[in-house]
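Entry 12.
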Amino acid sequence: MPSRLGSIGFQWYSSPFGGILKAVRGMHDIFGSEMAKWKWIETQVRSVFETFGYQEIRTPVLENVEVFSKTVGDETDIVEKQMYQVTKENESLVLRPEGTAGFMRAVLEHQLHREPSIQKYFYYLPMFRHERPQKGRLRQFHQFGAEFINDSSPEADADVIALLDAIYRKLGITEYDIRINSLGCLECRPQMKETLTGFLRPALPNLCEQCQKRFERAPFRILDCKRESCREITAKGPSLSSCLCTKCQTHHTQLKKRLEEAQIPFIDDPSIVRGLDYYSSTAFEFTSSLLGAQSALGGGGRYDQLAERFGEKPFPAVGFALGMERLVIALEAKNAFPQPHLFPKLYLAPLGERALDILFPLSLQLRRAGVWTEISYESQKSLKAQLKHANRLQAHFSLILGEDEIGKKVALLKDMAAQTQTEIPLEGIYENLLNKVNREN
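Predicted 3D structure (tokens):
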């Protein structure tokens, strides 16, 4: 009978030993030393969010397609090509391709923006985009995000940039540039667009195919093209900052002043435009040589008009996203991960049923005290076999208990690296082991 698993995205590959289930292309399993790296990053990043007063929010992995088609933009690559869609009982759903649109849906649904004060949220969620997998860009990827609502000031923008800067510094990453720009507002953006398209129109045949497609639907994204031929053209273009209205100019000037006061170096870069349609006013990006050609480490900006795309009254909002996979690449390039604690402190080796009766409850006591303890339940196995297992686990100590030791009312504690052993009385053995472990830490 044919398997139904293939209908939900699983893949099979041939093996000499028969069919083996394989992860979907661009989606990876995380375990072992890799998981230790991820957990360390998560702990560090969460601590910074908490220091800055952000509370966590978790949105569903599935959203109605309109959440993204109305916000990210109908004609963006994400909506046109990259979203994973699910149709069920006349519902058109998608696996979230990015975090801000789903966050905004949650804010409006629960009226979080009606609170009388500023609101600060963070999330750490998997995202999904059907694009060509490459280093640092997978089809399932993971993002931290921060969203700061109900504050329209440039100080809020500076606060969010400072938060992202603090996260990288907490992780030990300092090799990056902070690039900022102003994308204008509803008042000045039309003039910016007209100035840009007027300059680009004569050069249109010389732009790459992707930029030619963007010319009508998203001309600002041409400024972000990485093709050298396109960069040479846009480098000669007019300064769009001259099109900013007085309000946007004042906002941008004040943002730069606050960053300077905070001693956060930045580059005023007119090519920073962001890839999603809902950004306006402040945009920023952190770039790093640690990532190679894909230099974007994280970024974000202001999206004050996003609520309007849901048919709601707009309100101030600014935020950022940073990818976990890219953080891992950057930290690996610096060899900056701490040594993971992947090995048990104690291995209990009972030789016989009576020994197991004593060591089993002891193993639970030690675990409750926070000591990573492993125990062999195969008490009939030889001491040699059990110590071989302890070596495979790279346990620091092995505690050996057999009939002879029970008769003497002692157990043998073996230092696996030094190959030395000492006797420990069975009476008070729990306290003695805790003291020994604490001295070794």
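Annotation: Residues 1-15 have pLDDT under 50 and may be disordered. The chain has two domains: 32-188+244-334, 346-440.
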